[in-house]
Amino acid sequence: MTSLTRRGFLAVGGVALAACTSRTPEDAAERRQALNAEIEAARQQLLGIRGAPELIAAAQGVLIIPNVRQVGFFASGAYGEGALFIGPAIVEYYSLSLASVGFTFGAAAYNQALFFMTSQALQDFRLADGWQLGAGVQVVGGEDGVSAGVTTTRINRPIQELVFGQRGLIADASFAGAKYNRIVR
Q: Name one Pfam family in it (predicted).
């Protein structure tokens, strides 16, 4: 019988943890395919909104994040994953993480599109750390919703935001911080 040293224990534990958290290439391909299907469905819905095709044509790039899910009770959080299009091609994948504090009650899901109207705004977004500070109001009931707000992104850069496809029930009047992170899919 051999004694188990700390180093041996950590090695066995590390291998066990890696085995539990590793994903096969097939899992990654399936997740990317499912995400691409969600992005395409949101893009088709976006094309049906009056004025959106003109924004897409004028933009240097469009970030589409489908199915952003938000839940809150005074404070709230939201998360979603999507893709950055330059022309008709997906060039990068991004995640959106949002936290807010204020008057928030309920849960909702929505799609978000960011239109980068200048090449400088697109370059700044791709190189920046992604934080956005904002204040806004959102009311969603069923599939109809209204959102309004001013963010530092809108004030400082020529970036337009469109929130569409809202569903759920949430009332939100809060200060929020959002972070967009590049992810590998």
A: Ysc84
In-domain check, residue 15: no
Whole-number pLDDT of residue 100: 81
| pLDDT, tens digit, 9 for 90 and up, residues 69-113 | 988 887 888 999 999 999 999 999 999 998 887 777 788 889 999
pTM of whole model > 0.85? no
Domain assignment present for residue 5? The answer is no
Q: Which residue has the tokens 């095709």?
A: 53
DSSP assignments along the chain, one per residue: -----HHHHHHHHHHHHHHHH---HHHHHHHHHHHHHHHHHHHHHHHTSTTHHHHHHH-SEEEEEEEEEEEEEEEEEEEEEEEEEETTEEEEEEEEEEEEEEEEEEEEEEEEEEEE-SHHHHHHHHHS--EEEEEEEEEEEETEEEEEEEEHHHHHS-EEEEEEEEEEEEEEEEEEEEEEEEE--
In a domain, 3, yes or no: no
Q: What is the pLDDT of residues 120-162, one digit of tens each?
A: 989 988 988 766 655 544 444 444 444 444 444 444 447 888 8
69 in any annotated domain? yes
